[in-house]
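User
New here, explain this?
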Amino acid sequence: MENVEYRENNIEAGTHRLENEEKFGEVRIADEVVAIIAGLAASEIEGVASMAGNVTRDIIERLGRRSLAKGVRVTMEGDAVYVRLAINIQYGYNVPTTCAKIQERVKAAIETMTGLEVAEVNIKIVNVEME
């Protein structure tokens, strides 16, 4: 019993609780997990050269620690998830078409894998990469 109370009293900020009718315990998903799902889904789209990150993440990545959530910010308001992506697009790809595909893929991946509702997927094109 002591461990159960300990876990309940130390619920981390930045997690999302999933409701379940047949309750055997509690399931929480960290923001970082949702961000990783979004980043991986966006990276699968043809025309996405890479995810864009900030300077700190780039330095960490150069030191050998790759961040799978690079270029992704996830926020929750009520029961809705808001996703912001920063991407580098490959030269020659249509920006509106590629972004529409990213939005669809990210929304579907998050909703399928977590059961959370995605309200928005906003994309910022940071750079165009040449081959």
Remarks:
- Strands lie at 15-18, 27-30, 48-51, 72-77, 80-90, 117-129.
- The longest strand covers residues 117-129.
- The domain at 30-129 is CATH 3.30.70.1350 (Alpha-Beta Plaits).
